[in-house]
Amino acid sequence: MLGLKASHIKNLCNLKKPVCFDIPGHKESAKIIYQHFTKICSQLPSLNANLLPAYLSARYPTPIIYQGQALKLLNKLNASKCGHPSDLPIKLIKHFSFKLAEPLILIFNKALEQGEFPGQ
To answer: Which of 36, 62, 64, 91 is most buried as measured by Cβ atoms within 10 A of its Cβ?
Structure first.
């Protein structure tokens, strides 16, 4: 339970005595729990988005894909495997892998940096 003791949880929720949810029905129990947490949340101040930092730093640096890594993966593609009919043939991708690697790593590195990947 993440190392929290029951007494610490009671203090966080401002409970003086234990709350007992001994109603047999699931809907009734859910309603009581909902009302309890609604009461707790209504006592908290509203979240002010202007006070949040614009950039939340990541725990680890953004990974970077290098051209050599992309070339290695493109050249490892199996030409005998069938792709989607609308895709480029794998033989063509492997033949032009040196030219394709740079734009691919630019796209992937930018997507990793921004945390968003382009759509279809």
So the answer is: 36
| Token pair in block for residue 93 | 């991708």
Q: How far apart are CA 108 and CA 114, in angstroms?
A: 10
Q: Of 43, 21, 25, 42, whose CA–CA distance to 33 is shortest?
A: 21
- Tokens (6 digits) for 9: 């949880």
Whole-number Å distance between alpha carbons of 75 and 95:
9
Contacts of 89 (CB under 8 A, 6+ apart): 83
- Beta-strand runs (E) in 41-101: none
Query: What's the rounded Cα separation, in Å, for the pair 88 and 94?
Result: 10
Q: CA 80 to CA 20: how far, in whole Å?
A: 64
Sign of CA dihedral 109, 115, 117, 118: negative
**pLDDT tens column, 62-116:** 889 999 999 999 999 888 877 777 788 888 888 999 999 999 999 999 988 887 7
Separation of alpha carbons 4 and 23, rounded Å = 26
